[in-house]
Amino acid sequence: MESIGRYLRHAREARAMSVEEVSRATRIPVPSIERIEADHFDDLPGEVFVRGFLKAYARAVSLPVEEVLARYTASRRVALVTPMPIASPQGGNQGKRFGVAFAFVLLLILFTLALSIVMRPRGHDMPPELSQGEMQQGEGSGELRLI
């Protein structure tokens, strides 16, 4: 079975149409028509556009739209089933684990420091003069005296 691009090109040539004539009839850019005829569908904008281009192209050269789409789907199914090599990330996870461990240790240190500040006894922070007695404000003067 010939490829969809060759099939469309042969239909166009059988009707003695140029690529430019198909482009004017379908409003598909000439480079896109050339890519379709070369079976370079991955170079086109997207699957929805490719199907729309194929429908318009089929109508322009008087081919059954359903047949053209069925040929395209059959050719793409084989291409999509072909397994692609997958590169496993070797050092990516190790670096990520190190970053998580480092962030955890840093947060643990900060939490311990904050906890030690909050839990520190407050009695040792006062000057010795204030911690020994009560304060009383003198009458008439604005000063404080120890009793």
Q: What does this molecule look like?
A:
- There is one protein chain.
- This protein is mainly alpha-helical.
- 62% of the residues lie in helices and 4% in strands.
- It has helices at 4-14, 19-26, 30-37, 47-60, 65-81, 92-119, 128-132; strands spanning 135-137, 144-146.
- A hairpin with a 6-residue loop joins β1 (135-137) and β2.
- The longest helix is centred in the C-terminal third of the chain and has 28 residues, at 92-119.
- The model has no long low-confidence stretch (mean pLDDT 81).
List the helices and strands and how they pair.
Layout (H helix, E strand, L loop, with lengths): L3 H11 L4 H8 L3 H8 L9 H14 L4 H17 L10 H28 L8 H5 L2 E3 L6 E3 L1
Antiparallel strand pairs: 1-2
Structural class: mainly alpha
* Proportion of residues in helical segments: 55-70%
N-to-C SSE string, H for helix and E for strand: HHHHHHHEE
Beta-strand percentage range: under 5%
Shape from CA axes?
rod-shaped
Helical stretch count? 7
Rg calculated over all Cα atoms: 40 Å
Order of strands across the widest beta sheet?
A: 1-2
Residue runs with pLDDT of under 50 for 5 or more positions: none
Give the N-terminus to C-terminus distance in angstroms: 111 Å
The total beta strand count reads: 2
How many strands, which pairing sense, and closed or not: the largest β-sheet? 2 strands, antiparallel
Mean pLDDT: 81
